[in-house]
Amino acid sequence: MIFDVVLTGADVYDGLGNPGRRVDVGCVGDRIVAVEDLSRAEARERIDLTGYVLCPGFIDVHSHSDVYALIEPSGASKITQGVTTEVVGNCGASAAPLFGAYKLPADWAMHPHPGKWSTVAEYRDLVDEVRPAVNMALLIGHNTLRAGTVGYEGRPATADELQTMRDRLRAGLADGAIGFSTGLIYIPGTFAPRTEVEELAKVVAEEDGIYTSHMRSEGAGLLEAIEETIGYGRVSGARVQVSHLKTSGRENWHKIDAALDLIRQARDREGIEVAADRYPYIAACTDLDILLPDWALDDGHVAILARVRDADTRARMREEMLASRDADYWDTVTVGSTHHDETRPFKGMPLRQAAEKLGIEPVDAVFYIIERDELKTTGIFFGMSEDNMWKIFAEPYVMVGSDGSIHSPDGPLSRNHPHPRAYGSFPRFLRNVLDNGKMDLAEAIRKMTGLPASQFHFNDRGILAKGYQADCVAFKRDQVRDRADFVNPHQLSEGIDLVLVNGVVTVRDGKITGDRAGRFVGRT
User: Fold this and answer.
1) How far apart are CA 313 and CA 310, in angstroms?
2) What is the side-by-side strand order in the sheet with 31-36?
3) In contact, 169 and 142? CB cutoff 8 Å
4) How many CA atoms lie within 13 A of 221 on its CB side?
5) E-assigned strands of 336-448?
6) Residues 503-521: what's their mean pLDDT?
7) How many CB atoms lie within 10 A of CB 471?
8) What's the start-to-end Cα distance of the chain, in Å?
């Protein structure tokens, strides 16, 4: 046999949590065909990785790159982290199916796309045509289905509308989507009763998909939200993924042990297949208008903006926003991406500092910015505990997910102000493990490879073994690190020197080669 690529000399970690061992990995086409001594084998290319760790490509189970992967197929911010597969469509919003009243999130819609789609099948074909650097697996968003069917109204779905959502979900799964996600703090998902989500989760279970959830609360109602999320798995039989598990707000940090106990009990006593993901930062990022009261977010962007611009309604919102948060809360918020000429100076600036420059209170700065940006502003919210984060990562069922989209230091996706997790999550996690002994390296690698592959049923990825896809990453222990921060987020990570995606060398010597081999990935 003549190998296309032989990777030799590295300490090989298989992704299953086993210790590293010195062995060669041989690839033919897009597959690993041998993991053994290949010193005498004939190969078209032999890459010496002496001094390196070689492991499976990282699987980012929580991404929002649905449209950004089409706009920036180089995948610069992710491929340089060693990410070779992304799960997109999280938090209830997906690029497909695109129908009815559903509107793509503003940050996706504002850029021109290299093609059009409506169904999951059409989106899948476009991904394969664009051929991004990373593999893409799609979850179907609940908010996508609900907005397309019901619109953005604050009411329950009718029986016919629920059946339409079921049918659309089943069709999308048949077209290759791997599951279903909810974002139950976002409009219109927040209007859905439990019975609606249960019925859709049953469809997912019937098709052997996965149910993932940005829960109704990650703070005051955390324990109730975890109970609800586990309940969907209990009722439907679907695999369950708690998205970006956290305890938000200092007043809720003490709930961590009770939260983890709920998940352990569901797994160990009831056999519910529930797992979770987490990013290695203590700040979250989402739309800045999430600070508005729930009632103010009804009926879509036009209605929300009208309320913001109405003096009496705005005064009512302001009063409720102040009453529900203490004075120190506003110091935990940073302005993220902005879009209007008058708001661009505040990009990446702490909210209180922006308010001081405007000569107004922080709550009023929120209104000033989101009104001019027409609700396109993002915010970065510092409210988590570092100790709790590592308690969460210590759980054997918790994997790494960035909660970030593909970006690039150049081009159209370089002009906003993302959370640094988009560029640094996986190297940051590794750096903490290697420097601070947070866990064994083999276990850290399992959390980024074999564990997510198992939970999401990627049965031919996530492990370095014969017959698996040749998604491979090599790094040196002393060199891998993240560089992106909250002030300067558009900085590529360092130290991921070699990346193969489906057998194609996509990063060599730490540089993107321009050779792309990503594809749409369904259930296997």
Assistant:
1) 5
2) 31-36, 24-28, 2-8, 42-48
3) no
4) 10
5) 378-382, 398-400
6) 98
7) 36
8) 27
Tell me the two tokens of residue 401: 């997910």
Query: Tens digits of per-residue pLDDT, 380-423?
Result: 999 999 999 999 999 999 999 999 999 999 999 999 999 999 99
Strand 2-8 vs strand 42-48: parallel, antiparallel, or unpaired? parallel
Phi then psi dihedrals of residue 498, to 5 deg? -140, 130
Per-residue burial over 256-270, b if 16 or more Cβ lie within 10 Å, else e, is beebbebbeebbeee
**Residue 11, both tokens:** 């300490």
Each residue of 67-104: pLDDT tens digit? 999 999 999 999 999 999 999 999 999 999 999 999 99
| Chain-centre distance for alpha carbon 368 | 29
> Beta partners for 83?
58
Q: Is the pLDDT of residue 523 over 80?
A: no
Angle at which helix 421-436 crosses helix 441-448, to 10 degrees, equals 160
Summarize pLDDT for 447-480 with one digit per residue, the tens. Answer: 999 999 999 999 999 999 999 999 999 999 999 9
Pairwise CA distance, residues 205 & 284, whole Å: 30
- Say if residue 188 is preceded by a cis peptide, omega within 30 of 0: yes
139 φ/ψ angles, rounded to the nearest 5 degrees: -95, 145
Tokens representing 471 are: 């998604």
Secondary structure of residue 271 in the 3-state scheme? coil
Mean pLDDT for all residues in the chain: 96
- Checking if the pLDDT of 60 tops 90, the result is yes
Query: Which tokens in the block code for residue 406?
Result: 């593909």
| Nearest in space to 202 (alpha carbons), one of 178, 234, 236, 168 | 236
Task: Report DSSP state, residue 518.
Answer: -
Local confidence band at 524 (pLDDT 50, 70, 90 cut-offs): low
Gyration radius (Cα) of the chain, Å: 22
Residue pair 260/391 in contact by the 8 Å Cβ criterion:
yes
Place of tokens 């039989």: 237
Return the CATH superfamily for domain 57-282+383-458: Metal-dependent hydrolases (3.20.20.140)
Closest among 149, 50, 137, 52 to 99, alpha carbons compared: 149
pLDDT at 419: 96
Strands of the sheet containing 83-88, edge to edge, are 58-60, 83-88, 135-141, 179-183, 210-214, 239-242, 274-278, 398-400
* C-alpha span between 420 and 302 (Å, rounded): 31
pTM: 0.96
Cβ contact 495:510 at 8 Å: yes
Query: Domain residues of the chain, as ranges?
Result: 57-282+383-458, 288-381
Cα dihedral 454, 456, 459, 464 sign:
negative
How many other C-beta atoms are found inside a 10 Å radius of the C-beta of residue 100? 16
Cβ density class 383-404: b for 16+ within 10 Å, e for less: bbbeebbebbbebebbbbbbbb
